[in-house]
Amino acid sequence: MATRALPWEAGAPTGAGLAPMAGVTDAATRLLCFEQGAAWAVSEMLSAKGWVFSGRKNRNAVELLTRFPGEGATGLQLFGREPEYIARAARELEGEGFAFIDLNFGCPAPKIVGNGEGSALMREPELLGKIVRAAVRATHLPVTAKIRAGWDAQSVNAAEIARICEGEGARAVAVHARTRDQFYAGQADWRVIAAVVRAVDIPVFGNGDVRGGADARRMLEETGCARVMVGRAAQGNPWVFAEINAALRGEAWTPPTLEARLETALRHLDMALALYGPNKGVLEMRKHVAWYISGVPGAARLRERVNALGDAQSVRALLEEYARRGV
């Protein structure tokens, strides 16, 4: 039976969590978000079956499991449809320094749902329950789950799935209030989050269309959820957590200057190089640089120039040049 305290339970600081995003919420992104006030975070998703068969022979798994000093409470997200693999991975990975295990029942990617994983499991409630049960029994870490509203508009079953998760021992459930068919388009239906809150007694985290402090306050008020989770709004914008914390305290907030954004992008570059090495590190940073400079003068031209570069020194020199003069 899990006994460890979670970062959203009684006595923990208030604030928003960083939602798991494949290819985004690595150790570098998480640390920068924690520095700006994220209350907790969830890693990129790790295949339980892949871990069982490959373990640390898989370089991607090693990168995903990396944590940087100073990182706060982070959950390790596992995905898969075989309870026995979920259980073994959860048991073997509980000593990696993560605060909890999060189960992925929300990923909409065709490659994932094509294997019956991620949000496809919302169409198999019985199997989903077995997966949660297996994880809870296998590890001393708390177990949480990330779900969607449902598979499509005709099968919105988040409340039912949340009750199953709770019944099998999950300590919290995060709800992305879009169906799988929506992917990330359209508007998140926060009424689904409110329905889940009414259906279970464990904490419910609202996710979807929280872009800043005002959205966070409104979601909390309209749905009654315990906390909010931020996904895409944190891409290139770790300051969204400082903004949310200020809003929850009723305080004013000042956005970062362009200089601060570029300084953070350079720090992010250093961490990406440490995490991935010189070649992959530069490739990984291309999308992050695009997010950091979104909306600033000359962003399109700067993005083109960064994407044409293949070494860290050139990327650094270009960002420093932009900070001095613009492009």
Automatic annotation (TrEMBL):
SUPFAM superfamilies listed in its UniProt record: FMN-linked oxidoreductases
Q: What EC identifiers does the entry list?
A: 1.3.1.-
Top-level division of the source organism's lineage: Bacteria
Q: What is this protein called?
A: tRNA-dihydrouridine synthase
Extract the GO molecular function terms from the UniProt entry: flavin adenine dinucleotide binding; tRNA binding; tRNA dihydrouridine synthase activity
The similarity comment for this entry is:
Belongs to the dus family.
Q: List the Pfam families hit by this protein, alphabetically.
A: Dus
The record, for PROSITE patterns, names:
UPF0034
Q: Which reaction does it catalyse?
A: a 5,6-dihydrouridine in tRNA + NAD(+) = a uridine in tRNA + NADH + H(+); a 5,6-dihydrouridine in tRNA + NADP(+) = a uridine in tRNA + NADPH + H(+)
Q: Does Magnesium count among this protein's keywords?
A: no
- InterPro entries documented for this protein: Aldolase_TIM, DUS-like_FMN-bd, DUS_fam, DusB-like, tRNA-dHydroUridine_Synthase_C, tRNA_hU_synthase_CS
Cofactor(s) needed, names only, are: FMN
Q: What is the lineage of its organism?
A: Bacteria, Bacillati, Bacillota, Clostridia, Candidatus Pullichristensenella
Sorted alphabetically, which keywords does the UniProt record give? Flavoprotein, FMN, NADP, Nucleotide-binding, Oxidoreductase, RNA-binding, tRNA processing, tRNA-binding
Residues annotated to bind FMN: P20, M21, A22, Q77, K146, H176, G231, R232
What positions does UniProt annotate as the active site of this protein?
A: C107
